[in-house]
């Protein structure tokens, strides 16, 4: 796997910052490992943490903390379950994998698929945009949304 730095950079996106391809990336490529702080707290919540199962969450570091949501994403998060030597569950590893070919300069996006009670309006602009940053089948009360 090539170094993450050779594939992507953090740049200015339509809203805040985003992750952009520094070169063309083929479909099915593991762009990189999402590194960050693993937090073992069932109550823990932040805007960008990734659920690793059980009580574990991953608070990603740059560059992948800047991955933006799109309802037609070109990447996905690939979780690999890990076990400790004693068989207990260890924190999963998370990679960013491309769902299709990505052009030089294109922004990398994922589908956050949040089960949020206070969803954000989605401004991704995709033809199939769901209008809110939530999981496809997620039902929520629009009056509680931001
Ligand atoms: Zn959208």
Question: Could you walk me through the main structural features you see in this protein, from its secondary elements to its overall organization?
Answer:
It is a single chain. This protein has a single domain (4-112), classed as SET domain (Beta-clip-like, Beta Complex), CATH 2.170.270. The chain contains 1 helix and 10 strands. The protein has one helix at residues 4-7, and strands at residues 8-12, 17-21, 30-33, 36-40, 50-53, 56-60, 68-69, 75-83, 89-98, 107-110. A hairpin with a 2-residue loop joins strand 5 and strand 6. The longest helix is centred in the first third of the chain and has 4 residues, at 4-7. It is globular. The N and C termini lie far apart (40 Å). Bound molecules: zinc ion (ZN). Residues 71, 122, 124, 126, 129-130 line the site of zinc ion.
Please give the structural blueprint.
Blueprint: H1 4-7, E1 8-12, E2 17-21, E3 30-33, E4 36-40, E5 50-53, E6 56-60, E7 68-69, E8 75-83, E9 89-98, E10 107-110
The chain binds zinc ion (ZN).
């Amino acid at each position: 796997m090539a170094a993450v730095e050779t594939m992507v950079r953090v740049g200015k996106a339509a809203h805040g910052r985003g992750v952009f391809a520094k070169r063309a990336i083929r479909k099915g490529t593991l762009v990189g490992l999402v590194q960050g702080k693993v937090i073992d707290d069932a109550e823990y919540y932040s805007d960008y943490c990734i659920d690793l199962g059980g009580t574990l969450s991953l608070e990603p570091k740059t560059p992948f903390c800047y991955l933006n949501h799109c309802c037609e994403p070109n990447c996905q998060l690939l979780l690999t379950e890990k076990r400790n030597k004693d068989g207990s569950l260890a924190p999963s590893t998370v990679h960013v994998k491309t769902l299709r070919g990505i052009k030089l300069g294109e922004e990398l996006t994922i589908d956050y698929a949040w089960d949020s009670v206070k969803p954000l309006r989605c401004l991704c602009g995709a033809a199939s945009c769901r209008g809110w940053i939530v999981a496809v089948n997620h039902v929520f009360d629009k009056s509680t949304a931001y």
